[in-house]
């Protein structure tokens, strides 16, 4: 099995953050439940546009499955230990962009 996960970059008028999530988010609702997303949204003024850039990766071989929150914690720990972990140990399989208005 290989873990499918995405590096998500959120940007508003004067803020930006980056974090990992399981799977491939394609719309705002796909990010609900991820703490980093909810904190960013809570700190973003209403009616402000949020731009989302998603890069998706596979870690491991064989059949891909969406990474669980526990597996994301493991991947975060690996990234803390080795800053180039994602670039050197995973396969980039895609990217996407979307935007939404914070309501």
Set down the secondary structure blueprint:
Elements: E1 2-11, E2 16-22, H1 35-42, E3 49-60, E4 64-66, H2 69-81, H3 85-89, E5 91-101
Parallel strand pairs: 1-4
Antiparallel strand pairs: 1-2, 1-3, 3-5
State which percent range the strand residues make up. Answer: 35-45%
Number of strands: 5
Order of helices and strands: EEHEEHHE
Distance between the termini: 38 Å
The Cα radius of gyration reads: 14 Å
Number of domains: 1
Structural class call reads: alpha+beta
Number of helices: 3
What's the overall geometry? elongated
Largest sheet: 5 strands, mixed
Average pLDDT across residues? Answer: 95
3D architecture notes:
The chain is elongated and about 40 Å long. It has one domain (2-101). It is α+β, with helices and mostly antiparallel strands and 103 residues long. It has helices at residues 35-42, 69-81, 85-89; strands at 2-11, 16-22, 49-60, 64-66, 91-101. Strands 1, 2, 3, 4 and 5 form a 5-stranded mixed β-sheet that branches. It is built from 3 helices and 5 strands; from the N terminus they run ββαββααβ. The model has no long low-confidence stretch (mean pLDDT 95).
Quickly list its features.
103 residues, alpha+beta, 25% helix, five-stranded mixed sheet, 3 helices
């Amino acid at each position: 099995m290989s873990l499918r996960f995405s590096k998500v970059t959120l940007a508003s008028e004067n803020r930006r953050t980056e974090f990992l999530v399981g799977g491939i988010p394609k719309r705002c609702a796909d990010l609900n439940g991820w703490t980093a997303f909810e904190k960013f949204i809570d700190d973003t003024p209403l009616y402000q546009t949020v731009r989302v850039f998603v890069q998706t990766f596979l870690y491991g071989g064989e059949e891909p499955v969406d990474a669980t929150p526990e597996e994301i914690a493991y991947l975060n720990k690996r990234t803390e230990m080795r800053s180039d972990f994602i670039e050197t140990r995973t396969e980039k399989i895609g990217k996407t962009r979307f935007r939404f208005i914070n309501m």
